[in-house]
Structure formats: C-alpha cells, structure tokens
C-alpha cells in the first residue's frame, strides 16, 4: 500500500494483477492494470510506492520489472 499526496490510498492486488485506488474515507476511485506482460499489464504485482511527483512505481514481480505509472491520468 502507498499514499499519494492527495491522501488517496493505492493498494496492490497480487492475485488479481491490478492496483486499486481509494479515497481517504475508503471509497473506490479507480483500478489499474490487467493480467499480462505488456506495458501497463501486471503479473503478480508485489509492492507499490508513490514518489514526490505522484508517480506510481509498481514492483511487477513475475514480469521481473518495476513499472512507473501516472497517478493522475
């Protein structure tokens, strides 16, 4: 899990191959990702961090990479 500068929570879902974004109150906002090997697709994402520029970095474990995604797109 990671928090963005606006207080939203980004949750990594390892088994569902996606990320979810929630308001500080817990309301669902968005989902990123789908199973696969292409850019933007995930294969067992293991961790997530949000940097000071609100870029989301995802440890995409079984694709052996870190993907960078825009939080506000």
Automatic annotation (TrEMBL):
GO terms for molecular function: ubiquitin protein ligase activity. GO terms for biological process: proteasome-mediated ubiquitin-dependent protein catabolic process; protein polyubiquitination. It holds the Pfam family NHL. InterPro entries: 6-blade_b-propeller_TolB-like (IPR011042), NHL_repeat (IPR001258), TRIM-NHL_E3_ligases (IPR050952). The keyword Membrane does not apply. Keywords: Repeat. The keyword Acetylation does not apply. NHL repeats lie at residues 33-72. This is Tripartite motif-containing protein 71. It comes from Rhodopirellula maiorica SM1. The lineage of its organism: Bacteria, Pseudomonadati, Planctomycetota, Planctomycetia, Pirellulales.
């Amino acid at each position: 899990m990671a928090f963005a500068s606006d207080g939203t929570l980004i949750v990594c879902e390892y088994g569902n191959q996606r990320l979810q974004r929630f308001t500080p109150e817990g309301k669902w906002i968005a989902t990123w990702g789908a199973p696969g090997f292409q850019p933007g697709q995930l294969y067992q994402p293991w961790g997530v961090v949000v940097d000071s520029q609100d870029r989301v970095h995802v440890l995409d474990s079984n694709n052996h990479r870190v993907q960078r995604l825009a939080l506000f797109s």
